[in-house]
Amino acid sequence: MSTEFAVAFVMAIGTIAPAIAIGLLVSAGLTAIGRNPEAASKIQTNMILGIAFAEAIAIYALVVSLILKFV
Amino acid sequence: MATGLHISISAERLFTLGGLDITNSMFTSVLVSMLLISFAVITKSKLKNVSKPTGIQNFAEMIIEALHGLVHGVTSDFKKTRLFFPFISTFFLVIISNNWLGLIPGVGTIRLLVNEEAAQMEEAVKHSSVLVNSVQASETTIIEDATILTTDEVAHEDSANEHSGPVAVPIFRPGTADINTTISLALISIIVTQIFGFKYSKFGYFKKFINFSSPIMFFVGILELISEFAKIISFAFRLFGNILAGEILLVVIAFLCPIILPMPFYGLELFVGFIQALVFSLLTLVFFNMATINHEEH
Fold this sequence. Notes:
The structure holds 2 protein chains of 2 kinds.
Chain A: H1 2-14, H2 16-35, H3 40-70
Helix pairs in contact in A: 1-3, 2-3
Chain B: E1 13-17, E2 20-23, H1 24-45, H2 55-75, H3 78-101, E3 111-115, H4 117-135, H5 140-160, E4 166-170, H6 179-201, H7 215-256, H8 262-291
Antiparallel strand pairs in B: 1-2, 3-4
Helix pairs in contact in B: 1-3, 2-3, 2-8, 3-8, 4-5, 6-7, 6-8, 7-8
């Protein structure tokens, strides 16, 4: 019974921080592009890299909840 | 969940080959490798030295040019680009093909009936051989009796469990949806990073990890070592989690509402497959670059 709650809470709480992190990253990236539109492609590449790192943390939470649910 | 929904976190066994279990994701990743190799061989056989390439040569040159631009954009050094390019482009092409193959209709749904009893028979033989050794009997009749007895025991045991008899197993499963594939890709990436670092700075590369100049730098070295292992786990789980979650998402959405609603999720999965391949290759490239920084150019 408590496993079902755990599945939901792991995802609910585990994705708060990555969401905030991605929001901050993209905001900084957009500001940088706004200041210097010529470097847009370099900034975009590094931004996508940072977003992938932040999203990986949310994926760890997802894998834990999938394991709780199906194993 | 409800009956009929088949979700499995680990890859399932299709058949056994000389003691090694061949799983459906192993089979699919071998298939993808053969597709990529045949694409390369066919392109090479049709190469023409013209200024305006057409057909398959055009397609291949587009891919190579794009990847070369990507690698050169990070390294800015033609010698390093020539060295890193094969690894990065292989990682990218293998991962994107494996990811996108999971979206083809039939992958994950076409199933094969696999006899679980084959695995049980091997277990029974192992049990009986242990019994025979402990009893030290050497007559064939006693061995046969022991085999028959233990087979019955194992069959009774296992009928209490879920699977006794043939189980329907998906034949295809995207290779990267199996944690074994992603761990091995991550290991290759990090080990090759160390090899490049060694190649460029000889033993000076390892001074990054074992640094006796001051107590603080010693702990920084230990942290660097731990972070290498953390990179392996992070690479493996990022790719595995994204692709597995995509598979499960598509299965659940198709189960709930198979008409029209899966379309945006298919688009999402195409995008995610591409981005994950790009991120794996780009991160590997950045680590290669960091490991081979020339300290002489000041």
